[in-house]
Amino acid sequence: MSKAVCVILLFSCIVSVSSVTVLALSGEQKLIFDQGINYFDAESCGAFATSTGAATHTDAEGSADAKANALVIYTFLTSHGLTKPQAGGILANLYYESAGLNPKKVQNGGDAEEITVDNFTGYGLAQWTSRNRQQGLKDLAASRNKKSSNLGLQIDYLWKELTGGYKQALSNLKKTTDYSSAIYVIINQFEAPQDRNQVQSRGDAFKSIYDSLPEAASAADSSASSASGDTSGVQNCMCPAPSADPAGSNGKTVAIDPGHGPSAVTVDSKTGLKQVETNNQPEGKNVWDVAQLVKKSLEADGYKVVMLKQTEDESVTFRQRAERADQANADIALSIHTDSTLGNDGQIYPQKVGLYRGSGANKTTFTDAKTAETSQKYSDIFKSERQKTEGSDIVVKYNDFNGRQGYEPGDIQMVQLFSKTPWIYNEAKSSDVAKYAKGLISGVEKSLGQSGDTLSTQADATTCANGGVSSGNGSIDDIYATALKYAWSDYTNPNPTPKPSYKFAYDSGKRKGDYPGGGYTDCGAFITRLMIDSGADPNYNSKKLATSGQITQLNTDSKYEKIGNVTNVGQLKPGDIAVSDSHTYMYVGKHAGLKSQYDSVSASLAVSSPGRTPMASNSYDLGSWHWYRLKSIN
């Protein structure tokens, strides 16, 4: 009999006037009912005795009792085919995330009946954080005229995600046969917290409730994978979710510098400059809170975030902050400050060659032209993004320390002066934490790239399940999708760090014996992977030839036509391949997943190390290339 609980709100017995069928409650269902939790599924009731019991939705308000809520969730999960260890893996994670299966739980304090869609504040059982997931829960609640905090609603939303965008996580979960492995899958492929080493702690925290749960009946859709004891999807498939990538969602690292700390005056040993720190309050507390929101949101998007001070009151000199950012190879650093006396809504200070601090023998001038150029470019982006949330009067300018008693003269913040990292120094007039954080988050994403770069848990799980490769059918859409999955959306030269999805695809292909070329930056290996993994040509470069050899193979392969006398991109179609004796790339056209100025994707070993891993690029010198088009995608 199905374990789905079907209880009419006012009666514990169901009597049908058209049938003598009596629907009895199981022991665990009765326990739920006895605890006053009414779990009603109008859509499933009619077929309760004859269906497989996969209820379509639930309606349980929830309880303050974690054990009672656990039993409601457990009954739902096992009625949908999960074993006790598999359901326990989900529950242990939910228990940890929501501080005891509290569907009203708001991250960093308090409860709320409704979710706030802000892209960084976790809410509910799974602590839904990203904007699209928050909005999905809110929309489901609205469609059913329920509060976001409704336990049954959140269970349904959880299942909607697991059978939708996170279905590969569910598939891998169903391969597990023990509690710990199940917890591991949900940590890595669904929750994706910053710290993935919590299998033991999450399992222990929920263990007493887990042990009290009844055994689940075996289910047809899970027995096949569980009976064999096949846990290969867990043990051998170590694809990371977003923030597991050491280089971040798109190979980018962000350093965050919440301003201020204990008052101190120190002398920088390298320049002799006097460093003056002031313990400004409540600014120090305010910007620390902003920094935490920015950190959480960026990590949820997959960026690696380095905090330049570890606690709100840590004493860190400007030199130490700069060195921490540089040592982390950060792609951008943000200083976060507020000042209610500003004459503008906010100010942004970039680096610039010629800016200085100090006088006489101690005068130190900023000289890094490349860093300054990037800092100024990013500052303009931050201005635009911050204006959307803080006000229209955000200005980019340079500071002035001349005549300020106790401070070294000059026009640049010392933390920027000492660093080789592009540094955006932010001041805000308003102390509105959420608005300030939102503008900074958007500034980072627009500066470093987000669209097409962020590896979702779903994409990672799919890559993982397919041995690290895509599994397209060869359409132009599959070529696009694979290109965007493997290639960075912006051009940065050099860039030896591959997107995690390409790294797994390349490694998998190499193990299978496909052409490896010279590594992750090899152009011929990239186009080989792109054609095979998209399904466009599973036999592409089957002879494992370098680029010059690929010309010969393409010339003799009837699946391709050679496009001669190409003089402009109007003659090209997405998917066209350019090959020379030493290089190859693919024209993909203008596409939303690439930065607007690019129309191609390529990798390059380059003349000098370390080269470029797959990324956006541009078509060039069209007439000097051999161009080939796969006939099946004309």
Distance between the termini: 54 Å
What is the strand content? 5-15%
Helix content class: 25-40%
User: What class, by secondary structure content?
Assistant: alpha/beta
Tell me, rounded to a whole number, the average pLDDT: 80
Task: Give the topology, please.
Layout: H1 27-34, H2 42-45, H3 66-79, H4 84-97, H5 131-143, H6 151-162, H7 167-173, H8 179-191, H9 199-212, H10 220-227, H11 232-235, E1 253-258, E2 264-267, E3 274-277, H12 283-300, E4 304-307, H13 318-327, E5 332-338, E6 346-349, E7 356-357, E8 364-365, H14 369-390, E9 394-396, H15 414-417, E10 423-428, H16 433-448, H17 457-465, H18 476-486, H19 500-512, H20 523-533, H21 547-556, E11 560-563, E12 576-579, E13 584-587, E14 600-604, E15 612-617, E16 626-630
Parallel strand pairs: 1-4, 1-5, 5-10, 6-9
Antiparallel strand pairs: 2-3, 6-10, 7-8, 11-16, 12-13, 12-16, 13-14, 14-15
